[in-house]
Specification:
Helices cover about 45% and strands about 15% of the residues. The chain is of the alpha+beta class and about 160 residues long. The strands form two sheets. It has a three-stranded antiparallel beta sheet.
Length: about 160
């Protein structure tokens, strides 16, 4: 039986959401490193279908990725389907977020309790990180400095 190989650029075209192509390539590289699937670089590059926009510019741009040959196997197909399903669950950033304003809370567009819980969680995490950092610095210096003993009864 001869092995069948597919190009990464062809597999990216199979994705339901082209905007997730960069994430797919990263996950594929991780899967190859973890020996879940097999693939090799072939020295070429291809253009990812994902469109990037800069905040300061109006035009879009695209990135290139290194082309790979992937050993097509049942394990790869299962990984591909699982990864594609996971990528479709990721919320794209293009959805606008509502600004946190009093009007959005009073109109019911935002949930006060969930934002309150998130804020409390963030504050607690920040306090814990600060305390941890303080302890690490204290351990690094060897604890608190001790005052030098006072000179008593010595004359020059």
């Amino acid at each position: 039986m001869t092995d069948r190989y597919v190009k990464l650029s062809d597999e990216v075209k199979r994705l339901d959401l082209p905007q997730q192509s960069e994430t797919f390539v990263r996950k594929l590289r991780s899967a190859i490193a973890e020996e879940i699937v097999e693939g090799v670089y072939n020295g070429e590059k291809f253009v990812l279908p994902k469109q990037f926009t800069d905040l300061t510019r109006t035009e879009t741009r695209q990135k290139k990725a290194k082309e790979m040959l992937i050993l097509y196997s049942p394990a790869y197909e299962a990984w591909f389907l699982e990864t594609q399903a996971a990528l479709t669950q990721i919320r794209p950033r293009s959805e606008p977020r509502l600004p946190i304003t009093p009007e959005n809370f009073t109109e019911g567009k935002l949930d006060w309790q969930s934002h309150l819980d998130q804020t409390r969680h963030n504050i607690q995490n920040k306090q814990e990180r600060g305390a941890k950092l303080g302890l690490m610095r204290q351990e690094k210096k060897g604890g608190r400095r001790k005052k030098a003993p006072a000179l008593t009864g010595t004359s020059r």
